[in-house]
Amino acid sequence: MIRIGICDDEAYMLERISEKVKSHMAASHMEASLRRYGSGEELLGSGEKFDVIFLDIGMKGLDGIETAKRLRAGGYRGYVVFVTVSEEDVYRSFKVGAFDYLLKPLDEKEFERTLRRILASFRSKHEGRMLIRHDGEWSVILFHDIVYAEVVNRKIHLRLTDGRDIEYYDQMKRMLDRVDERFCRCHRSYIVNVEHIRAFIPGNELMMDNRDLIPVSRTYRESFNEGYFDYVGGAYD
Question: CA dihedral in degrees (43, 45, 47, 50; nearest 10)?
Fold first, then answer.
């Protein structure tokens, strides 16, 4: 399932983008959820989590660029596709980590090309997996399903998005060698999936999507920050 948000202050564009997305997802055999918003303020206030957001740059009130800045500042690491009437907005759009931009009126081929690239990237990210042995059997664990890993008494505990805690014998260094760049070590006993960080808590803690609090130790703070910002694309202005 891919979660898609569409934000435009023109009802016609909201409908048009929605229909194009639905059509492409059906043709790609990809399950998707869609949410539509008429302003940047409405999108930011929704509290919804998205994998992809289509943002109109020229909205009244909070424009698309400022909306994207606030999303990034709040920890959003998904794809942003700007929709704009002017190529003059291109430079500003990429400063906030845009995946792509589309010019109005929408070109069918360009829109399809952008969606194909997004889906290819999304599928690649979500196909990462590892094979582990626990409780006498082998299990395939998808990287996307791991919120964080904790080592306790020589066992690694994987806290998963479905609430399960899977434990198996391994070393943290070996696990880091097996996973990809979305995983960062923040403490001697913890590796976190940065895609599941909900908030940074004063006092050097991370709140994860499952509401668990994870410490960031002084020893790992610098390397964690480097890994985190490398993955999300750097600090956004």
Answer: 10
Per-residue pLDDT tens over the stretch 103-144: 989 998 999 999 988 988 887 777 788 999 998 899 999 998
d(CA 43, CA 6): 9
Q: Which position has the token pair 């996307």?
A: 144
218-223: which pairs have CB atoms within 8 A and are 24 or more residues apart?
Answer: 219/187, 219/188, 220/185, 220/186, 220/187, 220/188, 221/186, 223/184, 223/185
Kindly state the tokens that stand for 217.
């130790």
DSSP class per residue in 86-109? -GGGHHHHHHTT-SEEEESSPPHH
Q: Which domains does the chain have, with CATH numbers?
A: 2-126 (3.40.50.2300), 129-232 (2.40.50.1020)
- Taking the C-alpha atoms of residue 156 and residue 138, their distance in angstroms, rounded to an integer, is 15
* Packing angle, helices 11-27 and 108-126, rounded to 10: 60
Please indicate, yes or no, whether the overall pTM of this predicted structure exceeds 0.85.
no
Reported as half-sphere exposure (CB side, CA atoms, 13 A), residue 128 has a value of 16
